[in-house]
């Protein structure tokens, strides 16, 4: 039975925690109209992992250093730790250029035996996680979840009305940097599940569906995490049942289906932070 197989148990452990983190982070990305930031950091994940592979170190090191470092850089370039599209676009193009460079270095300096590593970075390898890798991913994603819950209240205030929050003494700029660092960490750990090319779907789709189904912030936050977890489970189940279906495709197919259903059956709700 598939459920008793170690590879599926590892994927379920890591995937559940990663999905919860992505759902929580994604809610605030949508609320703060910062989805483009998540898109940019997904490409940073690709570049960071390839850089680590090119120099012969664990790609996870490159993932976290690059995504968190660039996320904080975006905060420096933005107002009150909240980068605008111009800053993100410039960093985005620079990172893509670096990605091409490191891809060339990696493919020309490493043997063909390691060729699958680059594909894993792009499309994820959640069924290939070892016990230690699954536990590490689950712990990191769990810490991201705890951090989001801790800062949820002031971050929600700052996201809805930044000026009033600042006037009330909320450390808006510090919260902006903290949130960006959490987005970076989430992007890095989620790369193992769905790959750097598809992270945005896991971040945006559950949150977008949740905001169309309820206008209560905390209910939407919980719903976003819950939907992400269910979509992760559905994708893993589909892939294990139909081996020709990659897990990343199954996960994102489920996320897209849920989002489409929410658009059809749910009233259109404008995120509080989107009307800027």
TrEMBL record:
It is found in: Cell membrane; Membrane. Keywords: Membrane, Transmembrane, Transmembrane helix, Transport. GO terms for cellular component: ATP-binding cassette (ABC) transporter complex. The keyword Membrane applies. The chain crosses the membrane at residues 12-31, 38-55, 61-79, 86-106, 137-157, 177-205, 217-236, 248-266. It comes from the Bacteria. This is Metal ABC transporter permease. GO terms for biological process: response to zinc ion; transmembrane transport. Pfam families: ABC-3. It is a multi-pass membrane protein. Its main location: membrane. The keyword Amino-acid biosynthesis does not apply. Belongs to the ABC-3 integral membrane protein family. InterPro entries: ABC_BtuC-like (IPR037294), ABC_TroCD (IPR001626).
